[in-house]
Amino acid sequence: MTPLSSVPPSMRMKDWFVLTFLSSLWGSSFFFIEIIIRDIPTITLVAIRLILSAVILYLILLISGKNLRLDKSLVVAFFVMGLLNSILPYSLIAWGQHYVSSGMSATLIASTPLLTVIAAHYLTPDEKATANKIIGVIVGFLGVAIMLKDQFSVDDSELLIGKIAMIIAASCYASGAIYSKKVSKYGMSPIETATGQMAAGAILLTPFALVIDQPWLLPTPSLDTVLAMLGLVLLSSVLAYILFFKLMKTAGVTNLILVAFLIPVSSIILGVLFLNENFTLAHALGMLFIGVSLTIIDGRALKFLRKAH
User: Fold this and answer.
1) Residues in contact with 57: Cβ distance below 8 Å, sequence separation at least 6, in sequence order
2) Comparison of pLDDT for 288 and 123, the residue scoring more
3) Nearest to 244 by CA among 194, 174, 306
4) Does position 142 have pLDDT exceeding 50, yes or no?
5) How far does the signal peptide extend, from start to end residue (predicted)?
6) Residue 44 lies in a domain
7) Is residue 136 included in any domain, yes or no?
């Protein structure tokens, strides 16, 4: 039995609504990236995303009458979060999407909750795995596997490389979420944390973009690319991370990271509607499993069934 003090926070209905909205914001990032990579190289894409996000977040911070604290321990934390939550996963996803579809990318990223539940159980004092959470995550992971059941072939080495990139990105997100939980002890507001993370990521990556891609030599991007970049920055980065850090305080990291199970749904729908990707029976069945997994993890549906009997 897990001591009461180590039980993860319960999700309120408001939290589930925010979680679902957050999944649509992050799900759309795969759609935006699919468009942007046609014109902009991976490192430059990620650097632009981080720079613009950091500038916008900092302006919002200033307008709200606050400033960014920069003592030594916080600066180190920002750089670690910038690496784990931004540079590595953003770069791996953008690079991997040269080889796999946006829908498959989002589906592979959905392995994040399983990795996070395991890591959080051992690395945090108040996010121990419960029976509901373990069963729910396994059911959700089965849903992800069903979505990918026709795509496990390793005959295509480039496709395999793309898949591996997404799994590593999921591991980065899981590690980053656990580390971000530890950083919450500093008492920063969600917008402070998001600003620091994005700014640190921009500082680390921009020199590499300048040296490797020489972006000033690239052709002028199309209007679609510019609009996709704005969507990626404003919706999938700025707004998404403000909600992410805000929700972490009320829902806990293992509950919050369940957003990864919902991301494939919005990503696949966008891919079908705008990128001519196929929607299959496996996708529908996988989404059903994911829905069931979330109700198990939430626990309210099981309590209702017990009372009904």
Assistant:
1) 191, 194, 195, 198, 199, 238, 241, 242
2) 288
3) 194
4) yes
5) none
6) yes
7) yes
